[in-house]
Design brief:
Blueprint (H helix, E strand, L loop, with lengths): L16 H14 L12 H8 L3 H13 L3 E4 L3 E4 L8 E7 L4 H14 L3 E7 L4 H10 L6 E4 L3 E2 L5 E2 L3 H8 L6 E5 L10 E4 L2 H11 L1 H4 L4 E5 L11 H12 L4 E4 L12 E5 L2 H13 L8 E6 L3 H6 L2 E5 L1 H14 L3 E4 L2 E4 L5
Parallel strand pairs: 3-4, 3-5, 5-8, 8-9, 9-15, 10-11, 10-12, 12-13, 13-14
Antiparallel strand pairs: 1-2, 6-7, 14-16
Helix pairs in contact: 1-3, 2-3, 4-12, 5-6, 7-9
């Protein structure tokens, strides 16, 4: 087969042979030597021509198949199935849920990574099994893996990593891996770590607003203890630390109940949007004045919260997404804690 002459395998290269096959086929597609629907050399032909094991060829072809670059036709062989954008960098972006905050990070990542990359967004819903299946299925199919690790236990508690997750992540080449939101010391060889420090972030952000917070008689954190998408318990630890250190009366609730008892001098810190909406509604129904009678601080900023004048403690999702993209573009190893601040508005 004439196409075999275009394949280049360097015996002295440190790049694995299967990866050389992948790179060579992609390069030949990008420069027009291989065209759409064209048959490529068989596994046997490849093996005999370059004195490589069938396992090596099969591994390369399997990855090309996962990327939809080649397609097997029973009884006939393998054919080129994709030629457009073939030279682009392929990135798997794995997030635990499709919230406005995750989308903000993802969108800023897309805008910064530019048009020379193909990014696949996958949602695993904090489910360990689904995450492991997605990672196992795609462990060799992408050039880079951007992973935001948040998982739930059987009793709906939050956990950043499990042993199974760590073992699965370690199977990815560490120079291809970027961890967002959470870090793990034993994964310190990864290309990038852009993270929040949940306990100290909320502690420090609340400290920024201490003077106004002290005018309230009681601080109530609404922490959803049984959420489908659980939140790090480090938020609780940071909140308690702040209140105890400054001798503030505080309470922790699971949700904003429909018949919650509001008292003048209460300051609520909400995490979920539903609790914020329900609280604002009841403050208005009870004719309290927001920002003087009742205070509200919400977790993570949105355009709607800004419009409504809701004070927030928030991480900078723009920095998170842009930094992840720049690490890939520059192939520069980096570890960064994302800025987290109090944004003061009328509700405080």
């Amino acid at each position: 087969m004439d196409l075999i002459k275009y394949i280049n395998i360097d015996e002295n290269s440190r790049v694995p042979k299967y990866q050389q096959i992948i790179d060579s086929i992609i390069h030949n597609i990008s420069i027009g030597n291989f065209t759409m629907d064209q048959k490529i050399p068989s596994i046997n032909m490849f093996s005999e021509e370059f004195y490589l094991s069938r396992d090596t060829i099969e591994k390369a072809y399997s990855i090309l198949k996962e990327r939809n670059i080649i397609t097997p036709i029973r009884g006939k062989g393998y054919y080129i199935s994709r030629t457009k954008l073939i030279s682009k960098v392929n990135i798997l972006f794995l997030v635990n849920k499709l919230s406005s905050y995750k989308l903000k990070t993802y969108n800023h990542f897309l805008n910064s990574i530019g048009g020379n990359s193909l990014v696949d967004l996958q949602i695993y819903h904090c489910d360990e099994t689904l995450f492991l299946n997605l990672l196992d299925k795609n462990k060799s199919a992408y050039d880079y893996y951007v992973i935001m690790p948040h998982f739930k236990t059987e009793d709906l508690k939050h956990v950043s990593f499990t042993n199974n997750v760590i073992n699965a992540i370690k199977k990815i080449q560490q120079e291809k891996l970027i961890i967002l939101d959470n870090v793990k010391p034993i994964l310190d060889d990864v290309l990038g770590e852009i993270y929040q420090d949940f306990e100290n972030d909320i502690y420090n952000a609340l400290t920024e607003g201490l003077n106004k917070i002290k005018k309230y008689q009681k601080i109530i954190l609404v922490y959803p203890d049984k959420s489908v998408y659980p939140y790090p318990r480090r938020i609780l630890h940071g909140f308690r630390k702040f209140c105890v250190e400054h001798k503030l009366d505080f309470e922790i609730l699971n949700e904003v109940y429909d018949d919650i008892i509001l008292k003048k001098g209460d300051l609520f810190i909400t995490i979920e949007e539903a609790d914020l909406v329900n609280l604002v509604k009841q403050v208005r129904e009870d004719e309290y004045k927001l920002g003087s009678d009742i205070g509200i601080i919400s977790y993570n900023d949105t355009a709607l919260k800004e419009l409504l004048g809701i004070t927030v403690v928030s991480t900078d999702f723009k920095v998170m997404g842009e930094t992840a993209a720049h690490i890939i573009l520059n192939k520069r190893k980096e570890k960064l804690k994302v800025p987290f601040h109090l944004i003061e508005r009328e509700s405080l």
